[in-house]
Amino acid sequence: MRVLIACEFSGVVRRAFEKLGHEAYSCDLLPAEDKSVRHLQGDIFKLGLPWTYWDLMIANPPCTHLAVSGARWFKDKEEEQKEAIEFFMKLTKVNIPRIAVENPISIMSTKYRKPDQIIQPWQFGHGETKATCLWLKNLPKLIPTNVVEGREPRVHMLPPSADRWKLRSITYQGIAQAMAEQWGENFTKLKP
Ligand SMILES: C[S@@+](CC[C@H](N)C(=O)[O-])C[C@H]1O[C@@H](n2cnc3c(N)ncnc32)[C@H](O)[C@@H]1O
What we know:
Elements: E1 2-6, H1 12-19, E2 23-28, E3 39-41, E4 56-59, H2 78-93, E5 98-104, H3 108-111, E6 117-119, E7 132-137, H4 164-169, H5 173-185
Helix pairs in contact: 1-5
S-adenosylmethionine (SAM) binds next to strand 2.
């Protein structure tokens, strides 16, 4: 299966698919943290990617101007928010048969539509809370793989640092693995 992980610098989801034998590439404005050759650095809409090449895209667009947690700043960021909405919407419309777009609880639930699913890290082996919305095209909802007891919002308690937003935004390993196992392994059973 050919998988494009849009807006990923960490390589977490890319590597989860690679481990299961898929051809996976990540793409981000930033370089890949693991320096993988299977990373395309640049604006996803300016790299000239052949959309029809891919079987699946998983996209993690920036949430800074969309997340409900930042609502108090919205009135000063109207232009940035408009651009963020447009970018999110463009990702939902690319010509790839299976698409998952993820974001935290955000204004996209009203600007676009309600998400198909809201998942939590504690459903996938991490004792933490961080509601993550998934908008799905031709993909089944993710089935929790390992429900654990911990319910700490640990990620919000990271000390201030230049890298804080990066650390907060990295996809959880357990969620990446579930995506690869459930959307990759069984993809022949999925539509279309
Ligand atoms: C919320 S972070 C997602 C991080 C991801 N979960 C990971 O584990 O690496 C959003 C990412 O979108 C990237 N991004 C923003 N605009 C982009 C664009 N036009 N093309 C490609 N990537 C973009 C940012 O550089 C940022 O790394």
